[in-house]
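Tokens for chain A. Residues wanted.
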């Protein structure tokens, strides 16, 4: 019997179309992650001048950073869950759009209230990375997935390294609003490119959105992070800070109780309680702490006056250029991280990255006076961060069902954010406690900086220990779902190799 002749596909729907989308998916998503990190960083060089530019106090101006931190921490797991339910590309595009609207508001106004509200909108972009990683898992073949996820994880450091010198250059040669007009244009291009080039993932977990769980998590996180971020200003023993911490414990305890009893929780705590998932989140928190101290301390150290005996008196532009090699290193080392994970497993990559971070801080302790040693130590820390951050989402992807990848990675990014907030508070407390007066102004001592490096290095070693404690693919006692995830991960690694 004759076979029917095949009907040629209409123009634009043949095999070339999917390949074009596949080629564009990774660069478009990676550019969105870099842009998100740039948006979060560009306000830092403005902070010393914002009181004069806006007529607000220094304490009020600091909320341009705090508002982004709080909204990002709250919205990352919420938008991750929404992506799993309603479509990852749809929620990702909305997050980029909110970031762009916030940037446009900053470009149009000098009112501090508007700026704080705009920065809170920009915090929604913190969900870009976990959403993008989930899209990559759903859309890419296994052979390309590992390197793409590693690159996506590294965009946070790459964008942060680019944002500081970019903002400093704009501040030096143009009006500060110009910087936000530029980021607004880049954000609008990112929204259009994402909608056009990224396909919507078919993997969904339908159900009813847990509104009560989202509100409870938001209230608990705001109390926790507000207390951590403002503790140094308000006083760690003040009634406001202690009340915030107490309120956080109570609210999060009630939230935990609610999540265990609702049919469709915002965060699947039973999944989180598994060692492979829970220990990955602990490692993310510790790695976030260790990584963030590098950027905080390096920027202050190289800008310290030469009269301190150790400071280099560099400008903010030169400071950004000192951090730039770390960003380039993160871009170059992300493929290596994927290869190590495919050959040895992501928990080994994570442990190795944390150990490299500790080695970087050992270099910082040994010599923090010579510029080349400062850059070398900071770059080594950035290299370790690349390995660790690239391995974390792979660990999560291997341990959770496909329909919960965005929400699970959102929780992992949230843990990094909490670690960074605690790192900022801890570093500030150390430097304030170890300071001396120079011209009537308190300036951190070199011993204070070295102590901050020591704390960050010890936390990095704790992250290494947590990574090695994560059950490997060959450990006994996995659940049925774990065994399925293990087989899938092993197949992916073999196919990728």
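Reply:
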């Amino acid at each position: 019997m004759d076979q029917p002749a095949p009907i040629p596909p209409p123009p634009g729907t043949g095999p070339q179309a999917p390949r074009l989308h596949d080629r564009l998916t990774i660069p478009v998503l990676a550019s969105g992650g870099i842009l998100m990190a740039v948006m979060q960083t560009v306000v830092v060089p403005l902070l010393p001048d914002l009181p004069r530019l806006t007529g607000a106090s220094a304490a009020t101006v600091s909320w341009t950073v705090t508002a982004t931190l709080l909204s990002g921490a709250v919205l990352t797991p919420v938008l991750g869950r929404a992506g799993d339910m309603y479509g990852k590309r749809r929620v990702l595009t909305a997050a980029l759009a909110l970031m762009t609207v916030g940037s446009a508001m900053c470009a149009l106004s000098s009112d501090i209230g508007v700026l704080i509200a705009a920065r809170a909108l920009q915090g929604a972009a913190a969900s870009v990375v976990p959403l993008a990683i989930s899209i990559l898992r759903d859309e890419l073949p296994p052979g390309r997935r590992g390197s793409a996820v590693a690159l996506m994880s590294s965009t946070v450091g790459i964008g942060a390294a680019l944002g500081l010198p970019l903002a400093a250059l704009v501040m030096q040669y143009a009006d500060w609003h110009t910087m936000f007009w530029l980021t607004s244009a880049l954000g609008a291009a990112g929204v259009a490119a994402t909608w056009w080039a990224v396909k919507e993932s078919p993997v969904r977990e339908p159900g009813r959105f847990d509104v009560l769980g989202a509100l409870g998590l938001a209230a608990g996180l705001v109390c926790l992070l507000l207390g951590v971020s403002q503790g140094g200003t308000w006083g760690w023993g003040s009634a406001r800070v202690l009340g915030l911490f107490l309120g956080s414990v109570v609210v999060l305890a009630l939230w935990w109780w609610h999540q265990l009893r609702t049919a469709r929780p915002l965060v699947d705590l039973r999944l989180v309680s598994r060692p492979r998932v829970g220990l990955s989140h602990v490692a993310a928190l510790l790695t976030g702490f260790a990584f963030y101290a590098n950027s905080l301390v390096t920027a202050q150290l190289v800008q310290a006056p030469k009269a301190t005996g150790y400071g280099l008196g560099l400008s903010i532009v030169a400071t950004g250029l000192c951090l730039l090699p770390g960003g380039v290193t993160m871009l170059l080392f992300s493929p290596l991280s994927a290869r190590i994970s495919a050959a040895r497993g992501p928990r080994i990559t994570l442990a190795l990255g944390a150990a490299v971070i500790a080695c970087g801080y050992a270099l910082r302790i040994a010599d923090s006076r010579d510029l080349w040693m400062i850059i070398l130590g900071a770059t080594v820390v950035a290299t370790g961060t690349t390995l660790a951050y690239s391995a974390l989402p792979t660990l999560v992807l291997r341990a959770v069902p496909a329909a919960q990848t965005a929400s699970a990675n959102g929780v992992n990014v949230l843990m990094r954010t909490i670690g960074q907030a605690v790192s900022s508070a801890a570093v500030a407390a150390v430097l304030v406690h170890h300071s001396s007066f120079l011209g009537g102004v308190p300036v951190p001592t070199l011993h204070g900086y070295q102590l901050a490096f020591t704390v960050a290095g010890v936390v990095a070693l704790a992250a290494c220990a947590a990574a090695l404690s994560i059950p490997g693919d060959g450990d006994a006692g996995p659940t049925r779902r774990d065994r399925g995830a293990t087989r899938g991960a092993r197949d992916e690694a073999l196919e990728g190799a």
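Confidence is low (pLDDT under 50) at residues 1-18, 474-497. The two ends are 44 Å apart (CA to CA).
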